[in-house]
Queue: 2 jobs
Job 1
Amino acid sequence: MSKATREPRHHRVPGHTGARGAVRPVPGFSLRRALITGGAWLVAFVFLAPYLQMLLTALKPGEELFRTPPTLLPERWEWSNFAEVWNVAPIGDHLRVTLIVATCSTLLVLLVAAPAAYYTARNAYRGRTAFLLLVLVTQMFAPTALVIGLYRQFVALDLVNTYAALILVNAAFNLAFSTWILTAAFAAVPRDLEDAGMTDGLGRIGVLVRITIPTALPGVVTAVIFTFITTWNEFVVALTLTNSPDRQPLTVGITAFIGQYEVQWQYLFAASLVAVLPVVVLFVFIERYLVTGLTAGSFR
Amino acid sequence: MTSQSAKRPGTGRRRRPARSLGPLPWIGPALLLIFAVVLWPAVEMVRTSFSEIALTGMVRGPAGLDNYRTLLAEPELVPVVLRTVVWVAGIVFFTVVLGLLLAQLLQQHFPGRRVVRWLILLPWAASVVMTAIVWRWMLDYFYGLVNGLLTRPLPLIGPVLDGPVDWLGQASTALPWMMWVAVFVSLPFTIYVIIAGLSAIPQEVYEAARMDGASAWQAYVGITLPMLRPSILIATVINIINVFNSFPIIWVMTGGGPASATDTTTTFMYKLAFVRNDVGASAAMAVVNFLLVLVVVLVYLRIVRKRGMEV
């Protein structure tokens, strides 16, 4: 089993970490190497800096924020900001909305995309190209581009300010990515393995659940995590389709800090970090499969 | 497989309803979701753009091209469209060029490469809204880190700026900063696509070139760039679509202001509907916006094809 799950990985990410790197002799100290190392770490710091600033600001007591010239480090490290933020704004509500919407959208995407991807990967049916093209076109329609139409549609359906609206929209616009990556993942599952399952009398659904999905697991996990993160971070649709704090996700909720008379940056960023940290950790897990998934559809 | 029996529904020993219906049970739910939540609002949007909409949101009746006329009569329209072109072209260009450079760098071997690659992912994983807000805070006139650092006296050269600058208060500085933030959040994806492209180039090609006495630069221009074409193409097209539709950065950092001096077609469209309450004109703007994206992507693909780049 472990061999079967591992093989498609190498297959789909050719030389990501590079087998050829091991062949090249690693020199001792050289100026070139020092420059590359320094340069790369400098770049990494530039990418980290805004989030570091987020953290340092979140740890300052209110009065330290408004100083000129601004200070870099907090003089007093106010860890209690992370506890206090739950009281100054309905962060708990926002977090609940974000969690519910992201979880349900992801489940819906999986439920809808997995059968479609599986069938498309395994069969040359009539309209297959048309289906893939349709999926590709939805990628062209970013939710932002359609936000006026979405708003009018959900007003007509009387679904404004509901979980259902957010779940449906997020699921629909994440369908393309998941369908692509799952189609690629299922196509990479060896047919013999499935045929063996059929012979053993598992039936088509049984084969799908017991053999195909476990074997295509890296692709499935990537689709799941990527959908979850995209929904978690979604802003425009939630901004447009919700109007009360108990239905607004974190992305919209934290902008409420800005509208107030004086921005409470320390709480704003404490809340932001609550939103950012979990998905960053998840993202690292799917790092190596991301590109395959994002580009697979474009080659078709 | 046992597909011969598929044409006779209900006769098999095992239940096979899926077989008799063909692909529909499998792809049907996906189609339903796409039609209900992507195509329906698209149609609704086009319909709205040709309708007269009351303030309550009710359709009063057909409006012909009235909404488009209102839009064209809008004095802000031309500057906004031109700014959008600069916005998209500038961001995509710098993203791809920097992406090529950084992918090359991260492809080298150095201590901590894994960690560096993880850190590069941060702006991709984190919410764009939150990234934009922290930049807004760093660019704050009084308390922002950027003004703080630039007005601090440095050894030998003194302070870079004599006094603080209101970076986000005027279009001439707000736009470049917001474009930078857009490049910043677009880079991780771009870098990863190009790294994947670089990894797929067989090493032997470079060895052969080295034998022939090609310099590193010649190898890059003669081998790496041509072989990266598919990756560059995908990165460019996806970035064009994303940047065209990028909304949170401008919305959070300047709100399109002062007045509408930093609006793009996307934020302008949003303001037409939800600030000025002119849903009809907003829908017209959205339709124009979508056609713009389509035209830009098609023109780009055409140029690329013309140059004989095989994809």
Note: Chain A has one domain: 90-299.
Job 2
Amino acid sequence: MVFLLQLIVSGLVIGGVYALVALGFVLIYKASDVINFAQGEFLLIGAHLALTFLLVFNLPFIPAVLGALTVAVVLGAAVERVVLRPLIGEPIISMIMATIGLSSALRGLLQVFWGTETRTFPNIFPQDAINLGGVVVSQVYLWSLGIALVLLALFSFFFKRSIMGIAMRATADDQQAALSMGISVKVAFAVTWALAAAISTVGGVLLGNINGVNISLAHFGLKVLPVVILGGLDSIPGAIVGGFIIGILENLAGGYLDPLLGGGVKEVAPFIILVLILMLKPYGLFGKQVIERV
Amino acid sequence: MTRVWSRGAHHTGRPSMLTLNNVEVMYDNVILVLKGMSMAVPQGKIVALLGSNGAGKSTTLKAISGLLKAEDGAVTDGDINFEGQRIDNQSADAIVRRGIFQVMEGRRVFEHLTTEENLLAGSYIRRDRQNIKRDLSLVYDYFPQLMKLQKRTAGYLSGGEQQMLAIGRGLMARPKLLLLDEPSLGLSPLLVREIFEIIRRINQEEKTTILLVEQSATMALGIADYGYIMENGKIVLEGTAEKLRDNEDVKEFYLGLTEVGKKKSYREVKHYKRRKRWLS
């Protein structure tokens, strides 16, 4: 029983971080129907930036993360301006291919700047684990979950209530109509990419604290893709629920099936779940359906 | 700065709010849609722009609102002035900020947003955020149906409700000039009457100047002060709404009012064609 609980709790925690990273995908997809294959690199860049501010400039943790966020926001907007804006109006597939190219280019640049070795964060969160009724959780995980939840709530609020959030959703719905309201599509897209880069930075810092910062962080980006598709590519609640579902099921599969089958199930499980759910719900759990009126 | 006095101005004795002088519009650098279009919209009035399919009415509105630029169209000659300033070289969002709002043809509500979110999107350019709540209730005053649909996803509203939402969304921008592109499209005559009545009220109560593009001339001339008739990319006839309603050609070609039961012979159709050429 304790083993099961342990698996569920650690699934929940990692699910929160999945959800956060998934949100980066969802933001960009919602605004422009583009799947950003460079999302993983955004995570890695964010983590490296924070590390650089921490270790090279010797800033305390919070200012270092704020510094990393600032640079990431500028970088995100720049990527939109240089790579994607020239492609506005071209087929979506061209934009998606461009993000695949961007991912390779960024990965190369990353290694030039920061090398290929694993860098580790200094101990920021308290190290000792907490015992929650028999389930032992390290505090890093709890902090990550907490921060992820707060950010997810903030973003949901932003898109539901703020005029900029509503304008961004409107742009995703009908660009020309949005333009007729005086919403600049260029501004909406730039804000989208800046936000996606910012949220990835937070995700990168949290994951970097757990696993260390190396290229596997970039692969994490792709690992989150099933989460996004499961929840519905354009749904923020979908990203959150999808994150938790995949996190928990993956852990359960790892805990119970790996010993029986000799390992590896944990990595495959998210994709099996994905296929099963898509067979039943082609738009994902919460994806917006195409509205057809007769 | 030169003051722009123009054709439409003489019937009010005031300079017009909006003037188009010999405007030429091209799509993709090859297709000429407007060929020397001139018109004027005086402040506080309702002006109807009528004409058949493909005459260039929607293009005229898009040239004014700047939406043309998003469709590879451009004003290649002439000029458009709003409150004495040239606007044909400005971006669509800058033009909305100046106070011109186009309600596009086919309603174009944001389907996945709720009714209320659609209205809020209309208020995007407003800086006086503290007045937004008051204006939401103003829109619900004009369109009571929308009140109970506040939280409904706009894609599932009926055609009439969507048209109301599209106009309400325009009101939320508090424009000085509202451009309406075929608000009667695809709606039942009863609904059209209701919507036109509300348009008239908006003009009177909010002092919003309105430029109304319509194919159905009867309704439009019913509420308009002044009318222009367009054919083949330019104005062929203009006058007060009253005068246009009585004009024999307008009666025949746009209002469909010929003597009841009278059979049309080929000669009359030919006459129509000849007339049309003469008109343009």
Note: Confidence is low (pLDDT under 50) at residues 1-12 of chain B.
